[in-house]
Design goal:
Keywords: Endoplasmic reticulum, Glycosyltransferase, Membrane, Signal, Transferase, Transmembrane, Transmembrane helix. The chain is built from 17 helices and 6 strands. The chain is an alpha/beta fold and about 425 residues long.
Amino acid sequence: MFAFVFSTLALQSLLNAYSTPWSSTAVPRGYRLSLYLLTFAGVVFRSELAILVGTLTLYLFVTRRISITKIIIPAGLAGAVIGLLCTIPIDSFFWQSFPLWPEWTAFYYNTILGHSADWGVSPWHFYFANALPRLMLNPATYLLCIPIAVLNGATRRRSLDLLVPILSFVGLYSLLPHKEWRFIIYVIPGLTAIAAAGAAWIWTRRAKSIVYAFLSFTLAVSVLVSFAASTALLAVSSLNYPGGEALYQLYGQKGLEHGRRNTVHLDNLACQTGATRFLENHNANQTILDVLEAQKALNNRAWTYDKTEEPEKLHDPMFWDQFKFALTERPEKAIGSWETSWVAYGFSGVRILKPGEKSGGTVVPLDDVGWEEYMAKRWTSRVAAMWKRVERLFRESVFRGWWAEVKMEPKVWLLTTTERIGDGL
């Protein structure tokens, strides 16, 4: 999300440059700042922003708004150099490996070596047909407002100034087989700005004809519905981190000796759903000197975390002998003697209940008693209780027995070995 902040600030600078008279010295400064911020964010936070920098730079150059020597090279060079000076020492310290440039490492592994496809592939049209509509949420933005902003002569030029580099970025990124909405989220503020121009055109003319009045009413209703849907999705999104919940439960286990050596294996799903380095437990404060003696610092830690993914190692019984705990999606694949200490549930979709149909099956509804007990100290439990009360009030009287339930299912198992392993365990 840090990259999203920088890309939004870059959009602000770009819009300021677009809206400023060409004779002003603020115009090239705005373009330069926009490209600098995007370059810096691409180097430090998200490498995919390099494609957005490329499409935006090419569009501005082709439309003769920027020059190579005065804007492109200074902005790109400053963003790259300052970004590298920030990311290499800081990330090397936290990862205890020097020198390290995480974004280049990820880009090389996923894009150049082609390993991104290991995480799944999607059709070329996924971003346009699925991801963008879901991110925009309000259908009126892309079905009504953006087309009007592009077709209307008064807003066409500025709308295309944003739309062309944005859609070019999405189109180029669609060539990669592995696709996730988070890779293109940076275009949403720009698309929203274009939609806002179209919405403003409609709204200011609502008194001129019945058509504009109807469209204005439709926009107002769609905003309210989108707000309600966003609020509901916010609550649901908090249920997508079973890996983090499982790691949190591990630290809170009774009888756990934090001062002694504890080894934990984290599988892929656990890492993807919240079990990040930010939740790792260290027995002592780290200093900048630790990066120079990384192996010594690792050996002195009370907690050791393993994220091995190689199948040949995971099938080796000797590999599992080193761990005291495991957070895994498939407990049956953990070789050895293990017992389940805790199970983290995660979001499993929304189920439509027909009249007379009760919740149940292999999944657990959000308002299940066991789930409420687990979430007793979390705000989502209050949402679940409120949803249950609303169901009792309105399901039969208003919706004639129809209802929707949020489903939960087991996602990550916290396993504890039943054998004594290693020294000090």
